[in-house]
């Protein structure tokens, strides 16, 4: 339990720094986008290389994206959506409704 409290304290300390909340939110978005692409790619039975070819990207770019390592542009998301046989939908949501 001491380790858990130590981690919670460290997290609170880091999140208390200026800009930490925005950085955390950006990382969350990158992770969720990457996970969604990976799940759909796997659903279609595609390798990262096959998805990359369909989207006009290189396999390492797909790997970085799926790992949450890059913040994509809208054009990149559009290319990935088309390659994944999906339609890109971007929307704004009130903060009180965001989970």
From TrEMBL:
InterPro entries: Cro/C1-type_HTH, Lambda_DNA-bd_dom_sf, TransReg_Diox_bact_type
SUPFAM superfamilies referenced in this protein's UniProt entry, alphabetically: lambda repressor-like DNA-binding domains (SSF47413)
Keyword annotations from UniProtKB, A to Z: DNA-binding
MF-aspect GO terms: DNA binding; DNA-binding transcription factor activity
GO CC annotation: cytosol
Span of domain HTH cro/C1-type: 37-91
UniProt protein name: XRE family transcriptional regulator
Upper classification of the organism: Bacteria, Bacillati, Actinomycetota, Actinomycetes, Streptosporangiales
């Amino acid at each position: 339990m001491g380790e858990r409290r130590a981690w919670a304290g460290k997290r609170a300390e880091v999140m208390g720094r200026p800009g930490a909340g925005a950085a955390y939110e950006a990382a969350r978005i990158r992770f969720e986008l990457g996970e969604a692409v990976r799940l759909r790619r796997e659903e279609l039975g595609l390798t990262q290389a096959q998805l990359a070819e369909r989207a006009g990207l290189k396999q390492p770019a797909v790997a970085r994206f799926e790992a949450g390592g890059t913040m994509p542009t809208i054009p990149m998301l559009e290319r990935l959506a088309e390659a994944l046989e999906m339609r890109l939908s971007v929307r704004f949501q009130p903060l009180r409704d965001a989970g």
